[in-house]
Amino acid sequence: MIKAVIVLGLVAIASAQVLRISPHLFGSSSPAQLQVIHLGNGGAVAPIGRIQAVPVAIRPVQPIQLQLQPVPIRPVQVQPIQVRPIAIQAAPAPAKEEAPQPYGFAFDSEDEFGTKIGRQESGNEQGVITGSYTLSDANGISRIVTYVADDDGFRATVKTNEPGTLTSNPADVSIESTASARK
Q1: What is d(CA 122, CA 101) in angstroms, rounded to the nearest whole number?
Q2: What values do phi and psi take at 118, rounded to 5?
Q3: Which of 56, 100, 106, 146 is 20 to 30 A from residue 91's alpha carbon, by CA?
Q4: Structure-model confidence comparison of residues 65 and 53, the more confident one
């Protein structure tokens, strides 16, 4: 019965019509007198056939007898592992903090495209570090960053004319921009 409904459903779908099944189709008291299935495309409804129940012989299922056999458990031979002691050395004591040593360095370079890069940094015996780096290209766009790192933390000032930058002070960094505002 289900196969017939599925086949009729496929026919209805293929022909773009609506499949309507009588509400009494599955609730009929007489299986041989199932209701007619209609296909329609709006208002016109035409019967396309009658489904009749076909008796099917069902064989009873024979129970299966399972006989479980115990699985023999074999003892496992375990070989002892020989453990040798390892000498562990304590970590060395932290080195005493030495007084900062003064230092300084600087460099400048220019590539074949006219991009110039430079940096200089120095540190004194109090641990104060000051420095700067510069970047400029052949089109005149430049950035100069000066910075200080000391007991008060790291502070930087950026001077630039890079397009899209604005004068601001985010995260304790001062940005001074001379770029023209683009809209």
Answers
A1: 10
A2: -150, 155
A3: 100
A4: 65
Task: Read off the pLDDT of each residue in 8-31 and give the average, rounded to a whole number.
Answer: 45
Task: Give the span between the Cα atoms of 65 and 36, in whole angstroms.
Answer: 47
Cβ atoms of residues 125 and 135 within 8 Å: no
CA atoms within 13 A on the CB side of 174: 9
Structure tokens at 109: 């370079």
pTM higher than the cut 0.85: no
Which position has the token pair 């006989």? 67
What span, in angstroms and rounded, lies between the C-alpha atoms of 163 and 179?
6
Q: What is the pLDDT of residue 181?
A: 58
- Contact, 39 vs 86, CB < 8 A? no
Those residues whose C-beta lies under 8 Å from the C-beta of residue 142, and which sit 6 or more positions away, are 134, 135, 136, 160, 161, 162
CA 155, CA 103: separation in Å to the nearest integer? 20
Q: Cα–Cα distance between 138 and 134 in angstroms, integer?
A: 14
∠ CA 73-77-82, nearest 5°, is 150
**Token code pair at residue 12:** 């209805």
At 81 the pLDDT is 83
Domain boundaries, the chain: 2-50, 103-177
